[in-house]
Amino acid sequence: MVKLTGLKNIKTAVFISGTGSNLKNLIKFSKIKKSPISIDLIVTNNFKANGLKFSNQFKIKKHISNFKNSKIAEIKILDLLKKENIKFICLAGFMKILSRGFIKKFNGKIVNIHPSLLPKYKGLNTNIKAIRNKDKVAGCTVHFVTAKLDSGKIILQKEVKISEKDTPASLAKKVLRQEHKLYPAAIKKIFN
Prior knowledge:
Blueprint: E1 10-16, H1 21-30, E2 37-44, H2 53-57, E3 61-64, H3 70-83, E4 88-91, H4 100-105, E5 110-114, H5 126-132, E6 137-144, E7 154-161, H6 168-191
Parallel strand pairs: 1-2, 1-4, 2-3, 4-5
Antiparallel strand pairs: 5-6, 6-7
Helix pairs in contact: 1-6, 5-6
């Protein structure tokens, strides 16, 4: 792990694949006085990602990468991150798995938000699994990214009660509301 405490305005890239609600939330967080990060780049593998609208709205550079050949895509992204002097990466609903080599280059400086209480339910369909297994709680986790899927050191977690009426969709909404609180809190924890 790289020591990151006490830094300010750390140039950050957010990687997305979809709606970008966590991205928007991180952008808002980056604008407050006590935020240690500035969002300087949005990276996506999906040229139709709704979250790209925040690039124009907040005047943040964007990069759309075709992951058909992930090796080439990662080389291009790494070149861009270097050019833009990016020091920290937040994965926010990024639906591609980064290679061991990519992660190594940013060792200890990539974090992810995951919609489960890790180590439970790594990967996809976390809320379906929680309901199917009749869990009493679900939640979300911010963790450091390692080469092993959803297995890096946990920074913060937040529990969400599952009610009998919950569907995977209603639970996902409840978890997402907590994600929006948890991600900024985890970033503060890393840099303070």
